[in-house]
Design brief:
With 91 residues, the protein is an alpha/beta fold. It contains 5 helices and 3 strands; from the N terminus they run E-H-H-E-H-E-H-H. The model has no long low-confidence stretch (mean pLDDT 78).
Length: 91
């Protein structure tokens, strides 16, 4: 039974290197099915991964806002993080 790994930012530098490492590894490529998450599945990088068997999905605006809010919340002190996140989502 193959396992599924989801790689966010699969067409970027870090995510892309994870996808390529799995696809190029003789054992991992047999054990894992790769799902790539990207903002633009029409990019040449995304299409090249699809051609190699990667299931490519598009991240929604909501998920991007949540992710960006989480990154923003990490900038403050622990008691300030919730306020930062709440303020960001009111924009």
């Amino acid at each position: 039974m193959t396992k599924l790994i989801t790689v966010f930012g699969s067409t970027g530098n870090q995510g892309g290197s994870v996808v390529r490492a799995i696809l190029n590894h003789p054992q991992l490529s047999k054990e894992w099915k790769v799902r790539g998450v990207t903002r633009n599945p029409d990019k040449p990088d995304a299409q090249a991964m699809v051609a190699k068997g990667v299931e490519m999905v598009t991240v929604s605006l909501l998920i991007r806002r949540l992710w960006n809010g989480w990154k923003l919340s990490m900038l403050g002190e622990p008691q300030q993080q919730g306020v930062n996140l709440e303020s960001y989502h009111r924009i």
